[in-house]
Amino acid sequence: AGARNHPPPLPARRSRRPRASRPGTRHRVVSTCHSLVVGIFGLYIFLFDEATIADPLWGDPSLVKVNIAIASGYLISDLLILILYWKVIGDKYFVIHHCAALYAYFFILRDGVLAYVGNFRLLAELSSPFVNQRWFFEALEYPKFSKANVINGILMTVVFFVVRIAPIPPFYSYIYSVFGTEAYIRLGLLRQSAWICTCVVLDVMNVMWMIKISRGCIKVISLIRQEKAKSSLQNGKLD
């Protein structure tokens, strides 16, 4: 019998998600869900929880404890995922961030102190959805200068500054204002140091990330302006 003529193989489809890994995708999806839950709930507590507003150091922490417990559960699970998939999504700064936050949250959950302060720090999570969305755009290979990518990048920079950097001066001003008061002294040295040292560590990292994000945003905006200038110059020559 003669040899059969087999049809040529179909060209392999190009993956729509070549850079995205399953652990990375799940990690970012869970991070976004967590940040929206604790961020929005934290904003409600920040604006309407009279007990902690009236006494930021010793006010009734009932609502805040719920939010802190959700955040703590997420941080513990995220730490385990980072360790298990270290080669894919491992990041030493995330480990430092999570451990520092968990150390401070331990005192809030155990002793019911610094509830307002702990919740205030959770508002920083409102920037995470934009950071995660940038990762999704990169994983899906969206062009850097696509409208969606540029808008998300600008929003990410603005929101990151508003919730993580702008609160730094008033926050440390508040620490200075309560330093030495009876309410502050009652906290004891261990809880005082946990509060201040943890916040310093987290804010140093926030400033580092803000510098990195700002540089990226400025670079993209500058390149867009250059491209627009080139295209307008070329259009002028054609005319």
Descriptive account of the structure:
With about 240 residues, the chain is mainly α. It has one domain. About 80% of the residues lie in helices and about 0% in strands. It contains 10 helices and no strands. Helix 1 (about 20-50) crosses helix 6 (about 115-120). The N and C termini lie far apart (about 70 Å). Residues about 10-20 have low confidence and may be disordered.
Secondary structure: number of strands: 0
Strand content: under 5%
**Number of H- or I-type helical stretches:** 10
State the domain count: 1
* Computed structural class: mainly alpha
Q: Between the first and last Cα atoms, what is the distance in angstroms?
A: 69 Å
In one word, what is the shape? globular
Largest sheet: none
The SSE order reads: HHHHHHHHHH
Low-confidence stretches: 10-18
What keyword list fits this structure?
single chain; 239 residues; mainly alpha; 10 helices; 78% helix; 0% strand; globular
In short:
Helices cover about 80% and strands about 0% of the residues. It has about 240 residues and is mainly α.
Topology:
Blueprint: H1 22-48, H2 50-54, H3 62-84, H4 86-89, H5 92-111, H6 115-122, H7 128-139, H8 147-165, H9 168-178, H10 182-238
